Amino acid sequence: MRKKDYGLRVNKLFHIKTFGCQMNEHDSLKISALIKPLGFEETADPLQADLVLFNTCTVRQKAHDKAFSEIGKVIAAEGKRPLIGVCGCMAQEEGVKLLHRFPEINLVFGPDQIYKLPELLEIVEKEKRPAIATELINSAEDYHFLDTLEATRLNGPTAYVTIMKGCNSHCSYCIVPKVRGTEVCRPARDIIRETEFLVEKGCKEVTLLGQTVNSYCNDGVSFAELIALISKNTGVARIRFTSPHPKDVKDDLIEEYGQNPKLCPHIHMPLQSGSDAVLKRMRRAYNTTTYSAKIEKLRAARPDIAISTDMIVGFPGESDAEFQQSLDFIKGIGLDAMYAFKYSPRPDTEAFGMADDVAREKKEERLQRLLDLQNNLSKSKNETRIGLVEEVLVEGADKKKRGRFCGRSSHNRIVNFAGQEGLIGAIVKVKITKAYSNSLEGELWKN
Ligand code: SF4
Q1: Ligand 1 centre distance from Cα of residue 49 (Å)
Q2: Which one of 91, 295, 398, 412 is CB 3.0 to 4.6 Å from 266, fit for a cystine?
Q3: Percent of the chain clearing pLDDT 90 (strictly above)
Q4: What span, in angstroms and rounded, lies between the C-alpha atoms of 297 and 418?
Q5: Which residue's CA lies nearest to atom 8 of ligand 1?
Q6: CA 210–ligand 1 middle distance (angstroms)
Q7: Span 260-288, mean pLDDT?
Q8: How many whole angstroms from 327 Cα to the centroid of ligand 1?
Q9: What are the φ/ψ torsions at residue 62 (nearest 5 degrees)?
Q10: Nearest atom within ligand 1 for CA of residue 284
């Protein structure tokens, strides 16, 4: 059996594999920034690395299992074994059980313990034993938002800015409150300072991050006021946010959509089900009437607003009639885009105690029917953009086709077009010529 190697080489290499949501992506940036000063360089190849970190997700069983198999691959790989660290939501949920399952693991730490990484690496190196830290921090005084500005290096013209952590809601199917703790909101001045720092580095668009980002409140500053402050006090061109909870879409935020040109005309409004009975069992704290009323108000305040959503099919007890209500609601409300998932029972959630009685085939059939419906709706919505000129923030070049670029319109639609070098990071005008379910095609527009 290969011996555990705690010795760390100078100019060490690290590899980080990220699963899950934007919060995890941003945490991985912070983790990278924390260990680089320790003499680590990043490598894309886990087999070259001295340290391999898995930043995991546990929102669905699939993500959980995927991380297990990837950890297993690194352990089974030929050659010198790297140090192995597991962090993120699955690490928070599993904790010390991970070390029992994989004795080869050296580090386990939760999302609230990222700041401890240098200290944990030292324990591994000096005391030649695994290090673990999974305490949840639920007070603003003690929480480390790690806004070490070096952490927020730019990957192009867009960047995430974390404004809060945790969630105080208790949706019956969701494990997030258990693994991310209760809400802690970051001071507005720190968020503004970080945004201005990013703008100085060339950032055009920031996405404000939080589990229920629009429940933000700090020192009396509400979410809508925070957006107004960022708009007024920084040179950022575009502001987006994810992920909001429909119950916290209040009139002040809707007004902000009506009066703030920097706030992009797009909102993600996770509905989850179009059946009030299912929404009640999910403990979503709204029903289809209150949800529709907010959509109506948003469309009145910003008529061109694009709205996307999340849906879950096959929630315990979801009858054919309840699923039909979801189809009818989605057809009636006409949203622009959707992410849909099959219900996945999560331990330590209220729904885990409910019978997962919708057969897998039935879940798959419902998922396909819902996605087919939305794909048609999205295509019709996108077709209304043909002939219009969109403002597109160019995010990258098409790797396969030279001279092809892609970016996002202010409505969060992906736009592909032909152009010349040097466009990345610019906001350009593109006249739309073609529309698909998930993207638009266009040509550069010079008026
Ligand atoms: S709002 Fe609900 S679904 Fe979203 S993170 Fe909180 S508990 Fe989970």
Answers
A1: 35
A2: 412
A3: 88
A4: 37
A5: 174
A6: 11
A7: 98
A8: 23
A9: -55, -45
A10: 2
What count of other Cβ atoms lies within 10 Å of the Cβ of residue 171? 22
pLDDT of amino acid 397: 87
Output the residue whose Cα is nearest ligand 1's atom 2: 171
Phi, psi dihedrals of residue 120, rounded to the nearest 5°? -65, -40
- Taken in order 116, 118, 121, 122, the sign of the CA dihedral is negative
Ligand 1 atom nearest residue 168's Cα: 6
Torsion angle, alpha carbons of 199, 201, 203, 207, to 10: -80
Residues with CB under 6 Å of ligand 1 are 167, 169, 171, 174, 176-177, 211-212, 245
Ligand 1, closest atom to CA 245?
1
User: 166 CA distance to ligand 1 centroid (A)?
Assistant: 9
pLDDT band at 147 (very low <50, low <70, confident <90, very high): low
User: Each residue of 64-102: pLDDT tens digit?
Assistant: 999 999 999 999 998 889 999 999 999 999 999 999 999
- As a whole number of angstroms, the distance between CA 185 and CA 238 comes to 22
Rounded to 5 degrees, what angle do the CA atoms 8, 10, 12 make?
70
User: Is the model more confident about 61 or about 438?
Assistant: 438
Taking the centre of ligand 1 as the mean of its atom positions, its distance from the CA of residue 149, in whole angstroms, is: 28
Q: Point out which residues pair with 14 in neighbouring strands.
A: 42, 51
Give the pLDDT of residue 5. Answer: 45
CA of 57 to the centre of ligand 1 (A): 14
pLDDT in tens, 311-356: 999 999 999 999 999 999 999 999 999 999 999 999 999 999 999 9
372-380 contacts, C-beta under 8 A, 24 or more apart: 373/327, 373/330, 373/331, 374/330, 374/335, 374/337, 374/338, 374/340, 375/437, 376/437, 377/330, 377/331, 377/334, 377/335, 377/336, 378/336, 378/337, 378/338, 378/437, 378/438, 379/435, 379/436, 379/437
Contact in structure between 50 and 8 (CB atoms under 8 Å) = yes
**Is 379 within 8 Å of 437 (Cβ atoms)?**
yes
Ligand 1 atom index nearest CA of 211:
5
Is residue 251 a contact partner of residue 279, using CB atoms and an 8 Å limit?
A: no
- Confidence grade of residue 447 (pLDDT, cut at 50, 70, 90): low
